[in-house]
Amino acid sequence: MRIVLFGAPGSGKGTQAEKLVEDFGVPQISTGDLLRAAVADGTELGRKAKSAMDAGELVADEVVIGMIRDRLDEPDTANGFILDGFPRSLAQAEALDTMLEKLGRPVQRVIHLEVDNEEIVQRLLERGRADDNEDTIRNRLDVFDNQTQPLIEYYRNQGKLEAVDGMGDMDAIQARIRAALPS
Ligand code: B4P
Q: What Cα–Cα distance (Å) separates residue 69 from each residue in 80, 83, 122, 183?
Protein backbone atom coordinates (compact mmCIF):
# COMPACT_ATOMS: atom_id res chain seq x y z
CA MET A 1 0.00 0.00 0.00
CA ARG A 2 1.54 3.29 -1.10
CA ILE A 3 -0.64 6.19 -0.10
CA VAL A 4 -0.46 9.89 0.71
CA LEU A 5 -2.62 11.32 3.49
CA PHE A 6 -3.23 14.87 2.40
CA GLY A 7 -4.96 17.76 4.14
CA ALA A 8 -4.66 21.08 5.90
CA PRO A 9 -2.78 21.31 9.22
CA GLY A 10 -4.94 19.73 11.89
CA SER A 11 -7.07 17.80 9.40
CA GLY A 12 -6.15 14.55 11.19
CA LYS A 13 -3.43 13.16 8.91
CA GLY A 14 -1.17 12.07 11.77
CA THR A 15 -4.06 10.76 13.86
CA GLN A 16 -5.50 8.65 11.05
CA ALA A 17 -2.10 7.43 9.78
CA GLU A 18 -1.33 5.89 13.18
CA LYS A 19 -4.52 3.84 13.03
CA LEU A 20 -3.66 2.53 9.53
CA VAL A 21 -0.12 1.53 10.55
CA GLU A 22 -1.45 -0.87 13.20
CA ASP A 23 -3.39 -2.93 10.64
CA PHE A 24 -1.44 -2.61 7.41
CA GLY A 25 2.12 -3.06 8.70
CA VAL A 26 3.61 -0.31 6.57
CA PRO A 27 5.44 2.67 8.09
CA GLN A 28 3.94 6.11 8.61
CA ILE A 29 6.35 8.68 7.25
CA SER A 30 5.57 12.08 8.73
CA THR A 31 7.77 14.96 7.61
CA GLY A 32 6.52 16.98 10.59
CA ASP A 33 7.70 14.25 13.02
CA LEU A 34 11.02 13.81 11.20
CA LEU A 35 11.63 17.57 11.26
CA ARG A 36 10.70 17.91 14.96
CA ALA A 37 13.10 15.03 15.77
CA ALA A 38 15.88 16.80 13.84
CA VAL A 39 15.18 20.04 15.75
CA ALA A 40 15.22 18.18 19.10
CA ASP A 41 18.53 16.49 18.17
CA GLY A 42 20.06 19.84 17.17
CA THR A 43 21.24 18.52 13.78
CA GLU A 44 22.18 20.86 10.94
CA LEU A 45 18.93 19.93 9.17
CA GLY A 46 17.02 20.75 12.37
CA ARG A 47 18.69 24.14 12.64
CA LYS A 48 17.74 24.92 9.03
CA ALA A 49 14.11 23.86 9.65
CA LYS A 50 13.38 25.45 13.02
CA SER A 51 12.70 29.07 12.07
CA ALA A 52 10.33 28.08 9.24
CA MET A 53 8.43 25.70 11.51
CA ASP A 54 8.12 28.28 14.30
CA ALA A 55 6.66 30.75 11.80
CA GLY A 56 4.29 28.20 10.24
CA GLU A 57 6.10 28.44 6.88
CA LEU A 58 7.15 25.46 4.79
CA VAL A 59 10.68 24.21 5.32
CA ALA A 60 12.75 24.56 2.10
CA ASP A 61 11.84 21.97 -0.55
CA GLU A 62 15.41 20.68 -0.98
CA VAL A 63 15.71 19.97 2.75
CA VAL A 64 12.44 18.03 2.96
CA ILE A 65 12.91 16.22 -0.35
CA GLY A 66 16.39 15.04 0.72
CA MET A 67 14.97 13.81 4.01
CA ILE A 68 12.21 11.82 2.26
CA ARG A 69 14.63 10.38 -0.29
CA ASP A 70 16.76 8.97 2.57
CA ARG A 71 13.70 7.66 4.40
CA LEU A 72 12.26 5.89 1.34
CA ASP A 73 15.61 4.14 0.90
CA GLU A 74 15.13 2.29 4.17
CA PRO A 75 14.12 -1.39 3.89
CA ASP A 76 10.87 -1.08 5.88
CA THR A 77 9.27 0.75 2.93
CA ALA A 78 9.55 -2.31 0.65
CA ASN A 79 5.87 -3.22 1.20
CA GLY A 80 4.64 0.35 1.09
CA PHE A 81 4.25 3.49 3.17
CA ILE A 82 1.79 6.07 4.39
CA LEU A 83 3.08 9.56 3.69
CA ASP A 84 1.73 12.09 6.20
CA GLY A 85 2.45 15.78 5.56
CA PHE A 86 4.43 15.19 2.36
CA PRO A 87 4.22 16.38 -0.39
CA ARG A 88 3.18 19.94 0.46
CA SER A 89 4.28 21.80 -2.68
CA LEU A 90 4.29 21.10 -6.41
CA ALA A 91 8.09 20.74 -6.38
CA GLN A 92 7.80 18.10 -3.64
CA ALA A 93 5.09 16.18 -5.52
CA GLU A 94 7.14 16.15 -8.73
CA ALA A 95 10.27 15.05 -6.86
CA LEU A 96 8.28 12.26 -5.19
CA ASP A 97 6.94 11.04 -8.54
CA THR A 98 10.47 10.97 -9.97
CA MET A 99 11.84 9.06 -6.96
CA LEU A 100 9.07 6.47 -6.99
CA GLU A 101 9.08 6.02 -10.76
CA LYS A 102 12.75 5.06 -10.54
CA LEU A 103 11.85 2.46 -7.93
CA GLY A 104 8.84 1.26 -9.98
CA ARG A 105 6.56 1.92 -6.98
CA PRO A 106 4.30 4.92 -7.74
CA VAL A 107 1.81 6.42 -5.28
CA GLN A 108 -1.48 4.55 -5.64
CA ARG A 109 -3.88 6.90 -3.88
CA VAL A 110 -4.01 10.36 -2.32
CA ILE A 111 -6.61 10.67 0.43
CA HIS A 112 -7.68 14.27 0.97
CA LEU A 113 -9.10 14.81 4.46
CA GLU A 114 -11.53 17.72 4.23
CA VAL A 115 -12.12 19.76 7.41
CA ASP A 116 -13.52 23.29 7.99
CA ASN A 117 -10.99 25.97 8.92
CA GLU A 118 -12.77 26.93 12.16
CA GLU A 119 -12.73 23.28 13.30
CA ILE A 120 -9.00 23.15 12.49
CA VAL A 121 -8.24 26.22 14.60
CA GLN A 122 -10.16 24.72 17.54
CA ARG A 123 -8.39 21.34 17.28
CA LEU A 124 -4.93 22.86 17.13
CA LEU A 125 -5.53 25.35 19.94
CA GLU A 126 -6.64 22.40 22.07
CA ARG A 127 -3.53 20.38 21.18
CA GLY A 128 -1.23 23.32 22.06
CA ARG A 129 2.03 22.24 20.37
CA ALA A 130 4.74 24.97 20.10
CA ASP A 131 3.44 25.98 16.64
CA ASP A 132 -0.24 25.77 17.68
CA ASN A 133 -0.88 29.42 18.59
CA GLU A 134 -3.56 31.35 16.73
CA ASP A 135 -1.24 33.54 14.59
CA THR A 136 0.90 30.60 13.45
CA ILE A 137 -2.16 28.44 12.79
CA ARG A 138 -3.67 31.16 10.54
CA ASN A 139 -0.36 31.42 8.70
CA ARG A 140 -0.20 27.63 8.25
CA LEU A 141 -3.71 27.73 6.77
CA ASP A 142 -2.66 30.49 4.34
CA VAL A 143 0.41 28.49 3.38
CA PHE A 144 -1.83 25.48 2.76
CA ASP A 145 -4.15 27.53 0.52
CA ASN A 146 -1.32 29.07 -1.48
CA GLN A 147 1.31 26.36 -1.74
CA THR A 148 -0.34 23.02 -1.01
CA GLN A 149 -3.87 23.32 -2.51
CA PRO A 150 -2.51 23.15 -6.10
CA LEU A 151 -1.66 19.50 -5.41
CA ILE A 152 -5.38 18.69 -5.39
CA GLU A 153 -5.54 19.44 -9.11
CA TYR A 154 -2.19 17.71 -9.69
CA TYR A 155 -3.38 14.43 -8.19
CA ARG A 156 -6.89 14.74 -9.62
CA ASN A 157 -5.31 14.91 -13.07
CA GLN A 158 -3.42 11.70 -12.26
CA GLY A 159 -6.73 10.05 -11.26
CA LYS A 160 -5.40 9.32 -7.76
CA LEU A 161 -7.34 11.77 -5.59
CA GLU A 162 -10.06 10.62 -3.15
CA ALA A 163 -11.82 13.26 -1.04
CA VAL A 164 -12.85 12.05 2.44
CA ASP A 165 -14.98 13.94 4.95
CA GLY A 166 -12.58 14.56 7.88
CA MET A 167 -15.18 16.03 10.26
CA GLY A 168 -16.63 14.23 13.26
CA ASP A 169 -15.86 10.95 15.02
CA MET A 170 -12.30 9.61 14.50
CA ASP A 171 -13.41 5.98 13.98
CA ALA A 172 -16.01 7.03 11.42
CA ILE A 173 -13.32 8.98 9.55
CA GLN A 174 -11.05 5.92 9.66
CA ALA A 175 -13.81 3.78 8.13
CA ARG A 176 -14.28 6.34 5.32
CA ILE A 177 -10.52 6.30 4.65
CA ARG A 178 -10.44 2.51 4.48
CA ALA A 179 -13.29 2.54 1.98
CA ALA A 180 -11.19 4.85 -0.21
CA LEU A 181 -7.97 2.77 -0.11
CA PRO A 182 -6.70 0.87 -3.15
CA SER A 183 -7.89 -2.75 -3.16
P1 B4P B 1 2.97 18.74 10.68
O2 B4P B 1 3.67 18.02 11.74
O3 B4P B 1 2.63 17.99 9.43
O4 B4P B 1 1.72 19.41 11.36
P5 B4P B 1 0.20 19.52 10.94
O6 B4P B 1 0.07 19.91 9.50
O7 B4P B 1 -0.41 20.40 11.94
O8 B4P B 1 -0.42 18.09 11.02
P9 B4P B 1 -0.50 17.03 12.21
O10 B4P B 1 -0.25 15.71 11.57
O11 B4P B 1 0.40 17.42 13.34
O12 B4P B 1 -1.95 17.18 12.77
P13 B4P B 1 -3.18 16.27 12.56
O14 B4P B 1 -3.68 16.69 11.23
O15 B4P B 1 -2.97 14.82 12.76
O16 B4P B 1 3.84 20.01 10.20
C17 B4P B 1 4.40 20.93 11.11
C18 B4P B 1 5.34 21.90 10.38
O19 B4P B 1 6.47 21.16 9.84
C20 B4P B 1 4.78 22.65 9.17
O21 B4P B 1 4.07 23.82 9.55
C22 B4P B 1 6.07 22.95 8.37
O23 B4P B 1 6.77 24.04 8.92
C24 B4P B 1 6.89 21.70 8.59
N25 B4P B 1 6.67 20.69 7.54
C26 B4P B 1 6.09 19.46 7.70
N27 B4P B 1 6.06 18.80 6.53
C28 B4P B 1 6.62 19.62 5.59
C29 B4P B 1 6.84 19.52 4.18
N30 B4P B 1 6.47 18.44 3.49
N31 B4P B 1 7.42 20.57 3.55
C32 B4P B 1 7.81 21.66 4.22
N33 B4P B 1 7.61 21.84 5.54
C34 B4P B 1 7.03 20.82 6.22
O35 B4P B 1 -4.22 16.66 13.77
C36 B4P B 1 -3.99 17.65 14.70
C37 B4P B 1 -4.88 17.59 15.97
O38 B4P B 1 -6.27 17.40 15.67
C39 B4P B 1 -4.50 16.50 16.96
O40 B4P B 1 -4.39 17.10 18.23
C41 B4P B 1 -5.67 15.52 16.94
O42 B4P B 1 -5.90 14.94 18.21
C43 B4P B 1 -6.83 16.39 16.53
N44 B4P B 1 -7.81 15.62 15.76
C45 B4P B 1 -7.56 14.82 14.71
N46 B4P B 1 -8.71 14.27 14.24
C47 B4P B 1 -9.73 14.78 15.00
C48 B4P B 1 -11.14 14.62 15.00
N49 B4P B 1 -11.77 13.82 14.11
N50 B4P B 1 -11.86 15.29 15.90
C51 B4P B 1 -11.25 16.10 16.80
N52 B4P B 1 -9.91 16.30 16.87
C53 B4P B 1 -9.15 15.65 15.97
A: 14, 12, 34, 26
